[in-house]
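Typical record was shown:
=====
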Amino acid sequence: MPLSRRGLPWWVNRNFPRAPAASFMEERCGRARAPSVDYQDNTLSHQEGGQNWTPISPLKGVKFRRRLTAEAMAGVASGLVDLAVIGTPILTGISFGLPVKIVGSPPSKKGGFELVARKGITSVAELRGKVVTGGALGGGSHQSLLKILASNGLGENDVKIIASGGADAEMVLRSGKIDAVVTQEAVRLKLEDEGRGTLIAKARDYYGHYQSGFVLATNAFIKDHPEAIRDYFIATRDYYDYEKSHLDELVDYSAQRVKLRKELIRAYFEEQFGLLDLTFAIDLEGTANAVTYLKELKEVKAGVNFDPNTWLDLRFLD
């Protein structure tokens, strides 16, 4: 197949449906696992096999990370990350002089975070006095939780917020010790289908004109390996184009590997495909609004302004 000439950027995680989708792409596109990219990720081991190696570029030794949160700053500063897909914490990092540039957007610019409550809770207002978790402190999911709470008249002192780090949100809610979690749509669909959870808020409904995701590269990596960054975006586009053109097959494949009805799987992918922008263009106004919100959280200094000329390097999107 034509995609076999390029490495494909599998979006690997342990939640449905990206992990089955990754396997699907590997089998259909004939791309064997290859030790060309080092995952610096505590959810994946560094060994050949499974979905632990990801060939996003032919350049051996590229250190790639998806969805880093506040720890991104330490990872980049220490040389553990060359290229990453990340949320708004990178804006904080750049504002403090981290030697990186935003080189494009991930396929979806809007955050997919959703607030899901245990069965019996049907609104954000009902969380007053309850226990909730937004994942790692300082991360995009935690920021989304604060935004949703504030928009519903609740402050941090009105609920008990537990920092769960990288814990599996589905398992956290199933434990019965937490009343609501911030997670992704895929997990919410599964919990709702089983009657264990209820969607009470989508973060993107609260942010307005706002960009929540970015692709970053270190200044050194931009200087030394610009071709790898271009290949990354080309491969990403090929990846999603292939999925969209083989939806029936993708749904059947995923249904064999997860306990979820096919109609829900299809609905998930159709909604996700509708959110894609495969030009990878940066929404300048949405990014500026994100910086403004980070100022409100005191995660960016008040005197800092978003400067596209110094924060962005978009030559790789041609």
Observations:
- The domain at 113-207 is CATH 3.40.190.10 (D-Maltodextrin-Binding Protein; domain 2).
- Residues 1-19, 29-60 have pLDDT under 50 and may be disordered.
- Residues 226-245 form the longest helix (20 residues).
- The chain is about 40% helix and 15% strand.
